[in-house]
Amino acid sequence: MCVKWSDQGGVTAYVSTPTRYSSWSNPDRSGRNNGNLLNSTGFKDDIYDDIFCLEEDDTNGVGSSFAAVRRGGSSYKQNKSKNRIIDGGKNVISKASSFWSSTVGGTITSVKSLFQSKKSKKEQELLEQLQTMPVRRVVLTNSTILPPDIVRTAVKRAGLIGGPLRMDRVQELARTLKRWYVREGYVLNSVTGASLDPETATASITVEEPVVSRLPVDIVFCKEMIIDDDTGELMTFKKYREKKQKELDDKSGGLGRFQRLQEVKIDRKDLNTTFITTTGRTKATKIAQAMNLNPGQPFQYFDDRWNKIASSGIFSKVLKKSPESASDGGVCLQVFATEPPPRHLEYGIGKSVWTNSWEGEVDFDWRNVFGGGESAGVMVRRGTKDPAPSVRLRFGDDKFGLEGGYDVEAFTDFLGDTGKDTKEDNENDDDGPSSTLELDKDSLLSRRGATFRLRNPISPTIITNSVASASLERTSTTTGQLENIGSATLTLGPFRRLLPMEARSSISTTITGGTRLQGKGDDDITVLGSFTGASIGQLLPYTMASATTRQILPLSLSSRDDGTSPITLALQHTASMSTPNLPRHEAKAMGNSAQIRGASADCMASSTVKGTTEIRIPVAAPRVGSGTVVLFGDWFCVQKDMNSPFHSKSSIGIGIRKSIQGLPLKYDLSYSSEGKFKPMFGMGMDFDV
User: Fold this and answer.
1) Which of 183, 209, 235 is the last residue of a domain?
2) Taking burial as the number of CB atoms within 10 A of a residue's CB, which of 55, 275, 625, 639 is the most buried?
3) Where are the stretches annotated Disordered (predicted)?
């Protein structure tokens, strides 16, 4: 007969088959029945199966016998002979047990049933009744979020009503409810059990619905440090670079920072680094609000919301994120992350949309000001011939790219309109209708105002990306005339779409509505004899709309082994139109934005259509490095005003793209339909989806 041992090494029951895999522990100091033995051997050899098959009279010596065998107290031959004897005994006992079970097994069962207590008989009858009792009703006893319709549908799909409470049906119910939980963001919720009331035939389903703890989000800020191979100390990347540079200077004989013969090169992939905890700026409460995690509410997690938070720029790297049990019994979202530097200074050069002249730009940005992704900054631009700079002050909170983000901007822009174009128009269009306001014939000087933008005013479930803005500004001329302009703009998009063969496309639209209100000049003087009191306060409404489409089509698949970019065909088309009374600086901006490479600019426009086609060929040279050769073709059609015809221009050319010290440089050589070759230099990335 075989025995089964309890946790304390005593006999608990007699069984008819040997127990092959068991674990136990004994708190006494003798070391008998120590659980570590199981971990060291695993009982994978058949020789150890016989250890548990002992005579009933020998149960008192099981512990010592087992310890002796495990410690190797007998020789291998003695063990082998004993095992043969035990195997023979096992075969005899097994055959005898099978014979007597088939002979008197039914009689023993009948005798046992006669001597059962009334309580045991009642429990047996109840068990048999529950196994065949049809379920009349199903209830969820502790759910607070499952809708009744979802429960009814899941119960019907599982077939619980009208049949016995079977395990497979409960599992089907659990799978259906789990799918609903995950779809709604309750990723930790699940079905935990089921019971049946014999009096009412009601099946009670229990679920686990964890709630958010008092601390919904816990952010552990980390910092990557280098483990010095020489000393084993932790060092920052800056100090490690200084140390290696000093060692290199000592070897090469460098004379100082400005007379170094060689700069040290450090590859982070080759360094032995680790992460340590540090302090951070991001507030956990802001992340909890963005994730809609409120204390005491059911824990709900959405991947798309977290992905927007992680890609918003507040974290440079997210090492780990997971829901963890809190001390108060709730669930806390724990995040291990590193933060980027808060302050950034950027600079560059470009062309002004107002004057179409080259200008330098310096932009200072301070991010995550109050720990919730807020940003403040100032940008200063000035052209080579501008008498005054253009300045913009901004403050914003994009809410991690989610709904409700906003930013406020105050600006003063130098427009630099000399009135030359207007004079040429008067010479060419003497017979045409006069302008609505003689103000349009004066030279613009500057514009000052403020803009308020609201990000995602439309729910992202309806429109993925949307921006609404309102602007108030005042323009002034060189003679002191003033004009007040109020406008509102709605931008939808870009709406991005992935196409077959790694292609992608996007589309975005913008519509603007506003009005112009003429004011008095500084000296209350008239200009050209037309600035009269009747024109003061006159409202001139206007509307402007534009749409842009972009497509990136790979002409060859990229190689995943070397990571090279494929040859791509890039397309971009923009259409813009406006109604009369469009402010002059807006008309100039529309005309300048429609300029193509190699062609002269058309300063003012009321309607434009522009297209660009590029073939981008990545190249690499041993000494020069990687870059891109661009073959391009540009064209546009422009209408100067409502009474003018459309005219078009086009150009073709070749360009080179190369990043030097992180600055994306571009150089183009084009030939226009005007019959002119023109080189162009610029900075910035080419358009993408």
Assistant:
1) 209
2) 639
3) 417-440
**Do residues 555 and 632 share a domain?**
yes
Please check whether residue 210 is in contact with residue 298, taking contact to mean a CB–CB distance below 8 angstroms: yes
If one compares 9 and 146, the residue with the highest pLDDT of the two is 146
What distance in Å separates the CA atoms of residue 494 and residue 489, rounded to the nearest whole number?
15
The CB-side HSE value for 573 (13 A sphere, CA atoms) comes to: 5
Helix (H) or strand (E) segment spanning residue 483: strand 482-498
Is 325 or 537 the better-scoring residue by pLDDT? 325
Residues 492 and 387 in one domain: no
* Sheet architecture: strand order including 190-197: 137-140, 202-208, 190-197
Tokens at 589, concatenated: 């901006």
Do 568 and 553 contact (CB within 8 A), yes or no? yes
- Does residue 416 carry a pLDDT above 70? yes
Cα-based distances in Å from 111 to 116, 118, 125, 126, 638: 9, 15, 18, 21, 106
The Cα 15–Cα 2 span in angstroms is 6
**CA pair distance 112, 406, nearest whole angstrom:** 81
Burial classification of residue 380, based on how many CB atoms lie within 10 Å of its CB (0-12 exposed, 13-18 middle, 19 or more buried):
middle
The domain of 419 spans 415-683
Q: In terms of pTM, does the model score above 0.90? A: no
Q: What is the DSSP string of 261-306?
A: S------GGGS-EEEEE---S--HHHHHHHTT--TTSBP---HHHH
Q: Pull the structure tokens for residue 533.
A: 């009191």
Render pLDDT for 658-683 as a digit per residue (tens, 0 to 9).
988 778 889 999 999 988 999 988 88
pLDDT of the residue at 492 = 96
* pLDDT value for 508: 96
Could you give the number of structural domains in the chain? 4
Task: Say how far apart CA 347 and CA 662 lie, in whole Å.
Answer: 12
Residue of higher predicted confidence among 648 and 522: 648
Lowest mean pLDDT among 107-121, 273-287, 304-318, 496-510: 107-121
The structure tokens listed for 248 are: 């290199």
Task: Report the CATH number at residue 161.
Answer: 3.10.20.310
* Same domain, residue pair 536 and 397: no
Residue 393: per-residue pLDDT: 97
Give yes or no for a contact between 622 and 608, defined as CB atoms under 8 angstroms apart. Answer: no
Looking at every residue in the chain, the average pLDDT score rounds to 78
CA 119 → CA 115, 168, 201, distances in Å? 12, 30, 22
Cβ-proximal residues to 96 (8 Å cutoff; 6+ apart), any chain: none
Contacts of 236 (CB under 8 A, 6+ apart): 225, 226
CA dist 649 and 595 (Å) reads: 9
Question: Do 448 and 564 fall within a single domain?
Answer: yes
Query: Could you report the per-residue pLDDT of 466-488, keeping only the tens digit for each?
Result: 999 999 999 988 887 889 999 99
Please give the structure tokens belonging to residue 241.
């670079």
Type of residue found at 277: T
Please say which residue of 395, 414, 433 terminates a domain: 414
Neighbouring residues of 361: CB distance < 8 A, sequence distance ≥ 6: 347, 348, 349, 350, 379, 380, 381
